[in-house]
Design goal:
heterodimer; A: alpha+beta; 10 strands; B: mainly beta; 1 helix; 4 strands
Chain lengths: ~270, ~90
């Protein structure tokens, strides 16, 4: 039974998610659960039908239920997909020792350009991931690019990419569009990752702790450039983040450096009545 | 002796060949190396011209295409892609 409320995200953290396309929470899963996972995951987690409510997919007391009810995980999920999301699907991913090659860079499922809704993928790492274990490659700020699945596989390395190295019990929560891939495992150890995709069931508007909405760090996060962005396209990335932030906050006057306001100014279309 | 092709793909910050590298990929027809996704954090050259100076031959550059009407603000693939080769 919970003894306290989930730890809700702040506006600055949400803005960080909108810019990066993911949140990272290091070592939030306790050691005894990580050990349990390493015994459980090799046998797989039984599939559930697409769109199953979390409470039906994962019975009280089951490992996945306890994972998503950890206060930090529950609070972050609440801020991103709201209460009562459904489980799209889940999967146990394994990178075999010395398997020789990496996954190509890809986005999961199919191209998904919803401007005002997104799915979240939870990635849980029960082991300490060292540099040679093929931790997931994630490209910060790639989630709003309109590409389909593995059409990006030609790209091997991008400046500022994140080659995941993390302590045991680390959880990533990713926007559905993020470019990522399992890296080549050059170690002697099987690497496990458990993934759950969540679909929201409510509008994703102001679902987090919004008391810091006016914090200047919100704009700083949404203004962030990533090293792999081309000069001109970087501006479009910020334009598209502003549009997503407007959708998530309901504040249609929000802007960064006038990017959206300027190009949507249509004086001739205003009513003179 | 059969010549074999090594391919270097550089993604640059603008359409200028002397702009800085933002992404890179390598394919090695000699079999001497096995480049793959996520295998390095530092690019092999700072910009496209540096690759020319090191003996790589440019054989393809991305075209400059206007955005599709209605999709001017959409972002997708990296736009400034340059293919180089060495024959060894």
């Amino acid at each position: 039974m919970r003894t306290s409320a989930p730890q809700l995200l702040t506006s600055v953290q949400l803005a960080g998610f909108v810019a990066h396309g993911y949140l990272r929470m290091d070592a939030v899963v306790p050691a005894e659960m990580n050990q349990e996972a390493l015994e459980l995951l090799p046998n797989g987690i039984p599939e559930v039908p697409y769109g199953t409510p979390v409470t039906d997919a994962y019975p009280e007391g089951s490992f996945p239920r306890r994972l998503v009810e950890l206060l930090s995980v529950a609070g972050a999920l609440r801020g991103l997909v709201g209460p009562d999301p459904t489980v799209d699907h889940h999967a146990v991913h394994v990178r075999e020792p010395h398997e020789g090659r990496a996954q190509g860079l890809h986005g999961d499922a199919i191209i998904d350009v919803r401007p005002d809704a997104f799915d979240v993928q939870l990635m849980y790492y029960p082991q300490r991931v060292t540099p040679d274990m093929g931790g997931t490659l994630v490209i910060p700020g790639s989630h709003l690019r309109r590409t389909n699945e593995s059409d990006t596989a030609r790209y091997q390395n991008l400046r500022g990419q994140t080659r995941l190295v993390c302590p045991a019990g680390t959880v990533l929560l990713l926007h559905h569009g993020i470019w990522h891939g399992g890296r080549r495992n050059d170690s002697d150890i099987r690497r496990y990752m458990f993934k759950i995709r969540f679909n929201p069931t409510v509008p994703q508007v102001r679902l987090w702790d919004t008391t810091d909405m006016a914090d200047t760090d919100v704009v700083d996060e949404l203004s962030r450039y990533f090293p792999w962005y081309e000069n001109a396209t970087a501006r479009l990335e910020i334009f598209n983040r502003v549009r997503l932030w407007r959708a998530l906050t309901g504040d249609h006057s929000f802007d960064v450096e006038h990017w959206v306001t300027r190009v949507t100014n249509r004086p001739a279309h205003r009513s003179h009545a | 002796m059969t010549l074999r092709q090594q391919v270097l793909v550089l993604y640059l910050a603008s359409s200028a060949l002397d702009s800085h590298v933002v992404g890179w990929s390598r394919y090695d027809g000699t079999g001497a190396s096995q480049p793959t996704t996520g295998d390095s954090d530092e690019p092999p050259y700072p910009d496209g011209v540096a690759a020319l100076r090191d003996g790589w031959r440019l054989f393809q550059a991305a075209q400059l295409l206007p955005p599709h009407p209605g999709d001017e603000y959409g972002t997708s693939f990296l736009k400034h892609e340059f293919f180089f080769e060495k024959l060894t």
